[in-house]
Amino acid sequence: MSEFWQVAALAVATLATSWIATGQVLRWLDRRQIVDVPNHRSSHVRPTPRGGGIGLLAAALPALLVFALATTPMPWLPLILAAALLALISWHDDRGHVPARWRLLAQAAAVAAGLAVIDGRVFQGLLPAWLDPIVAGLAWIWFVNLTNFMDGIDGITGVEAASIGIGIALVGAPTAPALILAAASLGFLRWNWHPARLFMGDVGSVPLGYLIGALLLMLASDGQWAAALILPAYYLADASWTLARRLLQRKRVWEAHREHFYQQAVQRGWSHARVAATVGIVNIGLVVLALLSVDHPWSALAGAAFLVGATMARFGRA
Known about the structure:
Elements (H helix, E strand, L loop, with lengths): L2 H30 L2 E2 L11 E2 L3 H18 L5 H20 L4 H16 L16 H19 L5 H16 L3 H18 L9 H20 L3 H6 L2 H16 L12 H7 L4 H21 L4 H20 L2
Antiparallel strand pairs: 1-2
């Protein structure tokens, strides 16, 4: 069997496993009454099981392990172990509360382990060799957290993760891990599309953000830095702009809120499905721009900035 068909078979198996495993997790969460109860900061109106990311990871991590063992174990074995550790800590946070300093310490350790096995300089010589991994590590930690922050309505993170994974696979290596994460996200999306039967929870969003962040840094270190910025551009822009605005307003940035642009659209009457579908359509445009960035990075970046800015403006005045 050719490499293409091997990767395709692994992706299809991952999608099916994620679909089935997430359904089983839903039944288990229902029995245990592990639910997210709505409050004044929520975008949902009824108690919904939280922790569906367990099903996604139950498909993605074994598939990544198969890939790692079938090729070169490094760097994916350390990344898989780090993602599993983050999932464990995040699950405890979903069930109760883990202080922010311990969560950040675990994320920093996971990122340090990941940077140790990512070849090349992420910023392509723009920064001194000693500074490159420091800035890359801080960016990676921010991406982990913004993935968690942005997981605020039905379907949006499944759409985002699948889009980025497919985009990375189209632009270049690492193709198999990118498709595995995309497939696992699509399988999960079957249960998380509006009206969601269950939520991903931190147990899913934190390790998923970690693994996608690893793929984006690998893409950048391989020379495709513009594509690495373009593919997650909507999440990067919405989360970063909202954080900056809350900092200027002297609000507690670590507290849950409903101030992201996509949340403003929901508050103004858009359905979760319409917002998530709009993000998906925008992401198709970003994938096209990422492909164009291989030869025309600055033009593609300008196009991405316009597309994302227009989307945020539309959400903000929906």
